[in-house]
């Protein structure tokens, strides 16, 4: 074997090892979801000896998955929508328009990166309790949207700045309004950045547990993480069902990512270069 | 002049929703949180009792029932803040360089490496919990590989000496995906002719890596470390879900302690303490970031 070939084989060996590590818990999630209650207890083997669909069926019937999915979709969907609308407008203003206070506001939003979520969690709960928002989906969406401000403003402002100024000048010469320039010129050119923001917002929101835990009381409003938790809070943990539920919860996110992957990676490249 | 006015008004109109949301969710919460850190309150009595700096003093040294626990949580947090970004860079940089050097399967591997980011959260944390149990697959694998002495009979998360580092490794596992992706984009931005020129001058691949590629990736490393430190300081979901600070406080971190003081102390007046600890955490975040920025500038 030539030296180059040895090097390439070594490279693929290293890459494969990390690929296995990367997939490791996910593989066991799939494996456990097809094991019976007895088999999961002596579960040293990845491939189930007697694969069964019963576990997934029982788990599905045991939890109100339809409700959890609907609630998670509402919360995640509204949060992503809110983030995209609110901060694309603001970032456009920061990147393109000149007005008093623009710089100060921009830095204010970026500086919020350093305020830990836990530091404002308690005041958020107290405030929402007063406003009557505590325990509602809106009570989750508003702080989630506000919490993504720093990173979103940073990335979107960079994306809009990378659009050549001449395009805006030309559109203005044609008599286009600012709103029209934003919608017809800037948004189409920066689509990957928006997809990146959507993924970076959707993934943590889908998995959010802390604020949801302390604010939601009504079980019919539970999101997936809270539903999943109810499986493990009992005295006997049936891991085959926990793993099946986990699998049901992560599959849609994986599918979404697979679908958006191309845009997402491009958006990240653009954000880094910008 | 008229057009300038128009641009001002347009600008304000565009930022209005963001500012309005921040006024409600940000200004008020930050202001009242800061005020609460100087008061004593249990969440139920109608009035706060002002105590000045007492909460801060109690947390840092004055209250013997509180300060030692906070100090231990601070030490755990510091370990997480240093170890997670460091290990993330040490794994993702070589991983990205290797992945960038091969052609076949590159796209597939990139997706596989990104999977932990997409799925991270309560679902994977439960899966890891299962794998780390006394009879879980990690122990079984070690035993069957003849490394049974390394296996943890009481489980990796129940043993005080392994729990924190186990969680650190899982945090690294979930941080590597974004870091690798960022390094890959950084690598693709490097001008190939520079690497080629060095090679023609007789530089060995290792030298090219050390003298050209790694220095060019420093801005990326800075960003990864910065975000890694921030996430380690702010995030505590994994600690809450996987160990809830146990066994015996060995995996307690400052953010988790803040959360406990805010929501799980019943009628005890700990809300002011929780706020004070939250703001100490903020100060810590700023200090660590400044220290980091200095360190990275010197490296560069």
From TrEMBL, chain B:
The chain crosses the membrane at residues 12-38, 77-99, 111-128, 163-187, 208-229, 276-296. Residues 74-292 form the ABC transmembrane type-1 domain. It is a multi-pass membrane protein. GO terms for cellular component: plasma membrane. It is found in: Cell membrane. Keywords: Cell membrane, Membrane, Transmembrane, Transmembrane helix, Transport. The keyword Membrane applies. GO terms for biological process: transmembrane transport. Its main location: membrane. It comes from the Bacteria. InterPro entries: ABC_transporter_permease (IPR051393), MetI-like (IPR000515), MetI-like_sf (IPR035906). PROSITE patterns: ABC_TM1. Pfam families: BPD_transp_1. Belongs to the binding-protein-dependent transport system permease family. This is ABC transporter permease subunit.
């Amino acid at each position: 074997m030539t030296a180059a070939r040895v090097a390439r084989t070594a490279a693929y060996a290293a890459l494969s090892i990390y690929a296995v590590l990367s997939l490791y818990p996910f593989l066991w999630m799939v494996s456990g979801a097809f094991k019976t209650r007895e088999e999961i207890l002596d579960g040293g083997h990845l491939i189930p000896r007697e694969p069964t669909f019963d576990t997934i069926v029982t788990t599905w019937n045991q939890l109100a998955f339809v409700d959890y999915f609907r609630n998670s979709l509402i919360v995640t969907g509204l949060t992503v929508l809110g983030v995209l609308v609110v901060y694309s407008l603001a970032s456009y203003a920061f990147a393109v328009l000149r007005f008093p206070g623009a710089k100060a506001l921009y830095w204010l939003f970026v500086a919020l990166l350093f305020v830990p979520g836990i530091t404002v969690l308690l005041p958020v709960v107290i405030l929402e309790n007063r406003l009557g928002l505590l325990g509602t989906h809106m009570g989750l969406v508003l702080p989630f949207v506000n919490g993504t401000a720093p990173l979103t403003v940073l990335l979107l402002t960079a994306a809009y700045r990378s659009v050549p100024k001449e395009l805006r000048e030309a559109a203005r010469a044609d008599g286009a309004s600012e709103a029209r320039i934003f919608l017809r010129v800037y948004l189409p050119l920066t689509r990957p950045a928006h997809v990146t923001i959507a993924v970076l917002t959707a993934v943590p929101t889908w998995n959010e547990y802390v604020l949801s835990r302390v604010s939601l009381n009504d079980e019919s409003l539970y999101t997936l993480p809270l539903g999943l938790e109810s499986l493990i809070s009992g005295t006997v943990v049936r891991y085959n069902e926990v793993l099946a539920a986990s699998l049901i919860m992560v599959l849609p996110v994986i599918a979404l990512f697979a679908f958006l992957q191309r845009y997402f990676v491009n958006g990240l490249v653009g954000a880094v270069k910008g | 002049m008229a057009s300038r006015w128009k641009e001002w008004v347009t600008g304000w109109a565009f930022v209005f929703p963001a500012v309005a949301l921040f006024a409600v969710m940000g200004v008020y919460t930050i202001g009242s949180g800061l005020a609460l850190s100087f008061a004593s309150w249990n969440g139920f009595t109608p009035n706060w009792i002002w105590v000045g700096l007492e909460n801060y003093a109690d947390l840092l040294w004055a209250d013997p029932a509180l300060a030692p626990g906070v100090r231990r949580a601070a030490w755990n947090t510091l370990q997480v803040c240093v170890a997670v970004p460091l290990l993330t860079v040490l794994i993702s940089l070589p991983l990205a360089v290797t992945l960038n050097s091969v052609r076949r399967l590159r796209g597939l591997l990139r997706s596989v490496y990104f999977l932990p980011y997409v799925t991270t959260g309560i679902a994977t944390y439960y899966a890891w919990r299962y794998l780390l149990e006394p009879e879980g697959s990690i122990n079984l694998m070690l035993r069957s590989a003849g490394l049974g002495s390394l296996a943890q009979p009481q489980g990796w998360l129940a043993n005080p000496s392994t729990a924190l580092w186990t969680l650190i490794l899982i945090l690294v596992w979930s941080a590597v995906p974004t870091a690798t992706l960022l390094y890959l984009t950084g690598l693709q931005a490097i001008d190939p002719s520079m690497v080629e020129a060095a090679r023609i001058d007789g530089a060995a691949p290792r030298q090219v890596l050390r003298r050209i590629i790694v220095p060019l990736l420093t801005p990326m490393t800075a960003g990864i470390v910065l975000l890694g430190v921030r996430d380690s300081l702010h995030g505590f979901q994994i600690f809450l879900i996987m160990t809830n600070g146990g066994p015996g406080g060995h995996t307690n971190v400052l953010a988790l302690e803040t959360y406990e003081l805010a929501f799980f102390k019943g009628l005890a007046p700990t809300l002011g303490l929780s706020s004070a600890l939250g703001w100490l955490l903020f100060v810590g975040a700023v200090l660590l970031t400044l220290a980091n920025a200095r360190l990275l500038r010197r490296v560069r």
